[in-house]
Design brief:
By secondary structure, the chain is of the alpha/beta class. The chain has helices spanning about 20-40, 60-70, 75-85, 110, 135-145, 160-170, 205-215, 235-245, 265-270, 285-305, 315-325, 350-355, 360-365, 375-380; strands at about 90-95, 100, 125-135, 150-155, 175-180, 220-225, 250-255, 275, 280, 305-310, 335.
Length: about 375
Amino acid sequence: MFRPPDSAVGPARRPISGLYFTAIGAVVLVLLAGFVAWLAKPSTPKRQAGARIEITLPPVSRRSTAVASAPRLPADKDFERLIAGGDPTLIERGPSGPLPIVAEDGRRAWQVYAAPFDAADRHPRIAVIIAGLGRAGLDTQSAIDKLPPSVTLAFDPYAPDLPDWIAKARAAHHEVLMSIPMEPLDYPREDPGPQTLLTALPVQQNLDRLEWALSRAVGYVGITNMMGSRFTAAAPELRPVLEVVNGRGLLFVETRATNPGAVATLAGEFALPYAVTDRDLDADLSRTAVDQALLDSEPIARRKNRAIVAGSLYPLTVERVVAWSKTLPDKDLVLAPISAMVTIPPVAKPAEATAPDAKQSETAPEAKPEPKPAAAQDGAAK
């Protein structure tokens, strides 16, 4: 079939057969048939770019729009759970939940929810506050069960199931405080959480954060600062907060880690029931240090007729408080709830509130009469 290659004309080539032309023709016919079929197919109208498509939606009423933009209120069943065990005359419904109010007959939460205490007992009093309850369930239950009833318990507003925990604490006859996150000196390195009251925030925003914390539960006698060394020293920012606290029938406890805050000075502007701690129990978390802090409170109580110490929810702190409390009867000392320790300053004029002797209720409490009203100290916790 192939001739030998000729060096002059190059390699031999295969002759082109007619079969090639037949195959090419068949392919061309198939392509033409497909093209004709495509032309015969009805065309589907295309939407032009940017064309408008209208879809009819159900009308939105003005009422539904208003509801969507309004602050969310707790569902009725949730609200009922939050206020269980509280006095209905001391509760109003706020944007985030129940808020304490002064009853129409003048009764206040710090009196109604006060733990039982004999106001006629003239022994020097010592109050112990354990803070940070609610987040660690096992430790919280242990503190409620083991600590003497006269120990006051301060709960974390971020804690889950907070109404249930407070109900358990009050059923065990503990007095309850709500801890309010406040700005510390080293904020934001130390951050008490997203609802912290800050000196840089507008007044209304701080009050909104305060009300958020107050609405987590009911049944507490007052509030105490969570951290807050900067905020409690800032009188302009603290003043509206204390005014709201007093207006809602609560007391205020300043847990002081370092320098005095502005609470003692401002309390006289509103006749706010307040107290200031004398010792931190567990700044040094060791058995020796906690025991020494408890022992240090005893001469303070004998000198001032009262002393207040505060610690955190550490198992060691709870253990040492339990052991120390058993020694008090032999020392003629009495453990008291915080409501039995507050000072109620007379309402002072603005000029008097900042006078040098405005803190005499704190520095020389032995010269002051017992906290008033005394009736609040006799009532049982409700």
